[in-house]
Design brief:
Elements: E1 12-15, E2 22-23, E3 26-27, H1 31-40, E4 44-49, H2 56-65, E5 75-77, H3 78-89, E6 95-99, H4 102-110, E7 114-115, E8 128-131, H5 139-150, E9 154-157, E10 163-166, E11 169-172, H6 174-185, E12 190-191, H7 198-207, E13 214-218, H8 221-231, E14 234-238, H9 246-251, E15 257-259, H10 262-269
Parallel strand pairs: 1-4, 1-13, 4-5, 6-7, 6-8, 8-9, 9-12, 13-14, 14-15
Antiparallel strand pairs: 2-3, 10-11
Helix pairs in contact: 1-10
Length: about 270
């Protein structure tokens, strides 16, 4: 593990949210102190989340409820990265089948992408299945996905998280649905969000920070910490959410630092 005092020199902290700075609607002790200290040190934080179930406006409202002032430029989501990928690789006339929330559907449409609706007729006009964290999941969506995937349509997922931390433990996330669909179709998607490095690259591009000036903070080895490793930036593993120390050996991914929680990081950088 690296010398923790070096964290005082970081200019950009890429922050996971669920399990790292809060759980459901409960802000973790030390979060506000940490955010204040980053700014006091002349740094900046960007909230980096794989959760594609809500748009930035939903996160801003949630942050406000917990006493954190946030703005659209303070976020990079797996939905942002997925839209960037789709616009860069698919034809403008592509019709997408979305297994995701109405919020994600609105983001796709705002970006100029055509999202299939049942009233549009033939399901098979869809060229790409896009799978997000769908808190509005129905059995019809699952069977539609199976039909399309077994017909050979392209397949993209916003992120691979198996579960989403909640107050009572965990709820199924996008990765669990990926496994369900694999059982039926033997198809696996192109994954866009963490652990892929694109979200970290996008955040550094937005801020002009270098890899040496940037680090990522998260509670999952296989997504947050792996994203940092893949992007070539330092990673801070916190044990306040889903992850446990044995995950380091399990996933063969080594963080630069390990902390019990966000309070401990706040004490280091003050």
């Amino acid at each position: 593990m690296k010398d923790k005092t070096a964290l005082k020199n970081k200019k950009l902290f890429l922050m996971d949210m669920d399990g790292t700075i809060y759980l459901d609607e409960t802000l973790f002790d030390g979060t506000l102190d940490f955010l204040k200290r980053v700014k006091a040190n002349g740094g900046r934080y960007i909230f980096l989340t794989n959760n594609s179930s809500r748009g930035t406006e939903g996160y801003i409202a949630k942050m406000a409820r917990m006493g954190i002032e946030a703005h659209p430029e303070d976020f990079v989501t797996s939905a942002d990265a997925a839209i960037r990928y789709l616009k860069g690789t698919c034809a403008p006339e592509t019709v997408y089948y979305l297994c995701g929330t109405e919020s994600l559907k609105g983001m796709l449409r705002d970006a100029g992408l055509k999202v299939y609706e049942k009233k549009d007729g033939d399901l098979m006009q869809c060229s790409v299945v896009l799978l997000g964290y769908d808190t509005e999941l129905t059995y019809e969506k699952l069977t539609d996905c199976c039909r399309l995937l077994m017909a050979g349509k392209d397949y993209v997922a916003t992120h691979p998280d198996l579960v989403c931390p909640v107050s009572y433990g965990s709820a199924p996330d996008c990765g669990s649905v990926i496994e369900m669909l694999f059982t039926c179709t033997k198809r696996r998607p192109k994954v866009i969000g963490k652990p892929q490095p694109e979200m970290a690259y996008l955040a550094m591009e937005k801020t002009g920070c270098t890899k040496e000036e940037t680090c990522i903070v998260g509670d999952r080895i296989y997504t947050d910490i792996a994203c940092g490793v893949n992007a070539g930036i330092d990673s801070l593993f916190v044990l306040s959410g889903e992850g446990v120390l044995s995950d380091i050996e399990k996933y063969k991914v080594t963080p630069a630092y390990v902390f019990q929680n966000i309070r401990e990081i706040a004490e280091v950088i003050k």
